[in-house]
Amino acid sequence: MRRTACLAAAALLCLAARAAAQPTYKVEVKPDLKPLATLKVEDNRVVRSGLADDPGFRLQFVFKKDGKTVSEVEARSRTAADPPAEPGDYTVVLELFYPAYKGGAAQKGEYKPVSNVLAIRVEAGPPVKVTPAP
Questions:
Q1: Is the pLDDT of residue 25 over 50?
Q2: How confident is the model at residue 131 (pLDDT cuts 50, 70, 90)?
């Protein structure tokens, strides 16, 4: 009798734990969402506007020189980024991570641009001067 009561109590605990668990949701970017932001130069920094239709995934500024990525700066928690310190002509774009859901443990997905491509010129300082390039 005691053994049956213990088994019943254990089964009840397992069921209660399952009932309390949160449901899982498939996180995805809906095809009708068109995330869009605008980049501009302000106070020698690159500044972004708010992101319309934001699905909430990783957001980053990508600075390129001669077509090669020089730096990636996290943009989810900040609206401005300092450009690379080395003088020269750069392009910068805001990219959003679009996850892909396939089996396996590796990160899957890709970054896609969600802003205008801004051409900037960084001039040596002090202080370093950043201007939009023609």
A1: no
A2: confident
DSSP H helices in the chain: 2-20
Q: Does a structural domain hold residue 28?
A: no
State both tokens at 46: 């690159």
| Tokens 């950043």 -> residue | 130
Q: What is the pTM of this model?
A: 0.72
Q: What does the pLDDT look like over 60-92, one tens digit per residue?
A: 999 999 999 999 999 999 999 999 989 999 999
Give dist(CA 35, CA 96) in Å, integer. Answer: 8
Within a domain: 15: no
User: Given CA atoms 55, 61, 67, 70 in this order, what sign does their dihedral have?
Assistant: negative
Rounded CA-CA distance 126/134 in Å is: 23
Alpha-carbon span 103 to 47, nearest angstrom = 37
Give the chain's domain count.
Answer: 1
User: Encoding tokens for residue 79?
Assistant: 């609206």
Contact between 99 and 111 under an 8 Å Cβ cutoff? The reply is no
